[in-house]
Write a structure and sequence with these properties.
20 strands; Transcription Regulator spoIIAA; six-stranded mixed sheet; 27% helix; Archaeosine Trna-guanine Transglycosylase, Chain: A, domain 4; seven-stranded mixed sheet; Rossmann fold; alpha/beta
């Protein structure tokens, strides 16, 4: 029998509005002595059933995967994964000949809070962010070849760095299905080639969520001098190389810039228009002159928790002010925040203050977000983590 979580009186409204999180402050009582990751049923104070999800002892007490009474068995999760796959097919993402890297499961956006699955060719890279999905990781991995119609032949679990530390699960990364998947394989995105190392790379190996923004960049980089800050393995740089006058990639990691160089070479050979620098982003921006007329700022999350929000906003203001100040007249700034706790309004306000501090005239060309394979659950606005602005600097 699943554990029973009864909410305090008046605390059931967010669940009735299909928000997939139950916060600990809303919990009135718990029966069944659940451990982290156990299945729990949620009830209103009057005994009305509300939802089913995974229990955790932290600030988010239950992450809901069904608003119906359900037996979360293999058939339940097969159906939920198949729905995620069908959505990607209908959205024109899965099954494309020119793109073999995409996200199959995006947590709350697919009704599976705490689970991420990315596809790299024939390999699925899975990350459990909750104990609930870590406990059933082998079942999930076994379903992936089936729901993808045989596309997936290997599943790599990369949950070691994403699970809650206090859960004391002692995870280790490794293959759950197959094992012949070669980390460092070459995948394609919109026809461009990228070498991806899901074992050692950040996240699952590649920043899939910037696909649409990379395509947008290629529309505006023609003939421009492009600077790709926090360039990681060169995703934006490769797209810009299709038509830019020159492209420079900056990242603090020498391993990342080496892979950026390799990705440029995969697509354009030994093209002297590209050069990479393994150095600190703020130091590079501070020390340069007005050498570029298109700058990309795609930093790692400045704030992963609400307590770091103010510090993060200061970081965005400082970073964007430097870039705007050093931009050539008529230049473009592609600037992003991937911090979930930074709202779209917060980010836009930070960039506004940065622009005002430089005294330059700035126009907004585009406001961007995450692509369709990173869907935002309309009942869970917190899942809209990626924000971007494309600015024209006079």
């Amino acid at each position: 029998m699943p554990a029973t979580v009864t909410l305090k009186k008046g605390k059931e409204q967010s669940v009735r509005r299909f928000h997939p999180w139950v916060f600990s402050g809303a919990v009135g009582s718990v029966r069944g002595n659940p451990t982290e990751g156990d299945v729990a049923e949620v009830y209103a104070s009057d005994g009305t059933f509300l939802a089913t999800g995974h229990w955790a002892p932290g600030s988010i007490a239950v992450r809901i995967f069904s608003f119906e009474k359900t037996n979360p068995d293999r058939d339940f999760f097969r159906k939920r994964l198949a729905e995620a796959m069908q959505y990607r097919v209908r959205a024109g993402i899965a099954g494309r000949l020119d793109t073999s890297v995409w996200r199959l499961v995006h947590g709350e956006g697919d009704g599976l809070p705490g689970l991420v699955v990315d596809i790299y060719g024939n390999v699925a890279v899975m990350q459990a962010h909750t104990a609930g999905f870590w406990h059933i990781r082998e079942m999930i991995a076994g379903l992936l070849p089936e729901v993808t119609g045989g596309l997936v032949t290997a599943v790599y679990d990369k949950s070691e760095g994403t699970l809650p530390f206090m859960a004391k699960l002692n995870p280790s990364n490794g293959y759950l299905v197959g094992g012949n998947g070669e980390a460092g394989t070459v995948v394609t995105e919109n026809g461009f080639k990228f070498r991806v190392d899901w074992e050692k790379g950040q996240k699952t190996g590649f920043f899939i969520d910037q696909r649409d923004s990379r395509s947008l960049l290629a529309r505006y980089s023609n003939g421009r001098r492009v600077l790709n800050m926090f360039g990681y393995t060169g995703g934006f740089s490769v797209y810009a190389m299709s038509n830019a006058a020159l492209v420079h990639t900056v990242d603090s990691s020498a391993a990342a810039t080496a892979l950026a160089d390799e990705n440029v070479k995969l697509n354009f050979g030994d093209d002297l228009r590209h050069r990479s620098f393994a150095t600190d982003a703020f130091s590079f921006l501070s020390g340069m002159e007005r050498e570029y007329d298109l700058i990309i700022l795609d930093p790692p999350a400045f704030a992963k928790h609400q307590t770091a929000l103010n510090q993060a906003l200061q970081g965005y203001r400082r970073l964007n002010a430097l870039a705007i100040q050093k931009m050539r007249p008529g230049g473009l700034l592609f600037t992003y925040s991937c911090s979930q706790v930074v709202s779209r309004d917060d980010f836009r306000r930070s960039v506004f203050v940065a622009a005002a501090n430089t005294g330059r005239n700035v126009r907004i060309l585009y406001q961007t977000g995450q692509p369709a394979d990173h869907p935002v659950n309309i009942y869970h606005p917190e899942s809209e983590y990626l924000k971007g602005l494309v600015l024209y600097i006079e």
